[in-house]
Write a structure and sequence with these properties.
CATH class of the largest domain: Alpha Beta
Helix content: 25-40%
Bound molecules: nicotinamide-adenine-dinucleotide
Largest sheet: 7 strands, mixed
Number of strands: 11
Oligomer: single chain
Order of helices and strands: EEHEEHEHEHEEEHHHHHHEEH
Strand content: 15-25%
CATH architecture of the largest domain: 3-Layer(aba) Sandwich
Number of helices: 11
Length: about 325
């Protein structure tokens, strides 16, 4: 078992527990005052949760469509009908959709109830459940409404990944791929458990320095400017991590177009993505113009098109990238 500690500048601290069979550590992560636990999950997850206190299951629907304000309203109404109070706890049990929704509901219900996450997909274990970003989608784009709301603890039990469909595992590898370029760690050469632990450590190091994404934390969005656009324009017909993988290739090609990196570094991106058997081209049904419109609505876009790009000093936020370079580079992922 490994325990990674989040120690935020704000003074908040909490553990992320990674290992096989660590689900039984859940009761120890609940705040001492918790009387009851509202377990937010999805039908097909089927992880047996024992909080050790009175608990009730609240199921939400599957998929990105369920990451909506409608779900938040339904969930909060169900919490109110059960009489959930600030002396209770929300437990999100699932992938990133569940932890984003459960986290946002916990952040806003009664202006804030404690939350603990049990991450049951690779993507949630290495990323979504850690770091306190919560939120939902709007028809206009991904994750446009949300809150920073740190959990009291996170469980990443590797045993829960045994039932995860192949495509979901691959989607997690898309997010894992970005960590290669954040630190240069050779994650693909590690055992799966060590990869998860290292990814959590990298994420923790970044979030500890910049909880509210005033600077460095934005680097965790590497590959996401195009990735999020592909997801929303494609009506979420592609998995998040797969869209991020295409976004990573595109970001490398764009950095090359702008003279920031050489071709060897682009090939390095392609090698990592291909080694994880991830897609490298935008689905043909998705139109360039729609992608450009979606990219201007990205949360990072304070000044025209904004990307996280590789360069001589490593990854950086690059604002005001010219449309002609963006359009020209889209051909490299067609
Ligand atoms: N908050 C953040 O910091 C952050 C970071 C990265 C991604 N995200 C978000 O995470 C979401 C994607 O998360 P995801 O890839 O986990 O997808 P997901 O939550 O939709 O889960 C994928 C599917 O796997 C099922 N599932 C989950 N655990 C299972 C298990 N153990 N066995 C069998 N089936 C299981 C789910 O029911 C679902 O059908 C996106 O909405 C993305 O925006 C958030």
């Amino acid at each position: 078992m490994n325990e990674v500690q989040l120690e935020l500048n704000s003074g908040v601290t909490y553990p992320v527990i990674v290992g096989n069979g660590v689900l039984d550590r859940l009761p120890s992560l609940l705040p001492a005052i918790s009387n009851r636990a509202a377990i937010v999950t999805q039908k097909k997850i089927g992880v047996n949760i024992q909080t050790g206190i009175e608990q009730k299951i609240f199921e939400i629907d599957d998929g990105e469509e369920a990451k909506s304000l409608t779900t938040i309203e339904q969930l909060c109404s169900a919490f109110a009908q059960w009489g959930l109070t600030r002396a209770d706890v929300v437990v999100g049990v699932g992938g990133g959709v569940v932890t984003d929704v459960a986290g946002f509901a916990a952040a806003t219900y009664h202006r804030g109830v404690a939350v603990v996450h049990v991450a049951t997909t690779l993507l949630a274990q290495i990323d979504a459940a850690v770091g306190g970003k919560t939120g939902v989608n709007l028809p206009e784009g991904k994750n446009l409404v949300g809150a920073f709301w740190q959990p009291s603890g996170v469980i990443c039990d590797l045993d829960t990944l045994e039932t995860l469909p192949e495509q979901e595992l691959r989607s997690g590898l898309g997010e894992l791929a970005k960590y290669h370029f954040l630190t240069g760690d050779l994650l693909s050469e590690m055992e799966m458990k060590d990869r998860i632990v290292r990814a959590v450590e990298i994420k923790a190091e970044i979030v500890n320095q910049d909880e509210k994404e005033q600077g460095k934390r934005a680097l965790l969005n590497y590959g996401h400017t195009l990735g999020h656009a592909i997801e929303s324009v494609g009506n979420y017909g592609i998995k998040h991590g797969e869209a991020v993988a295409i976004g990573l290739i595109y970001a490398a090609e764009l950095a090359h177009t702008l003279g920031r990196i050489d071709n060897d570094r682009v090939l390095e991106h392609r090698r990592v993505i291909e080694s994880y058997d991830l897609p490298t081209v935008v689905p043909s049904v998705i139109d360039d113009q729609d992608l450009l419109s979606a990219m201007t609505r990205d949360k990072k876009a304070l000044d025209g098109y904004t990307f996280i790009l590789d360069g001589p000093e490593g990854l950086e936020i690059v604002r005001g990238v010219e449309e002609i370079s963006i359009k020209e580079t889209l051909e490299k992922v067609r």
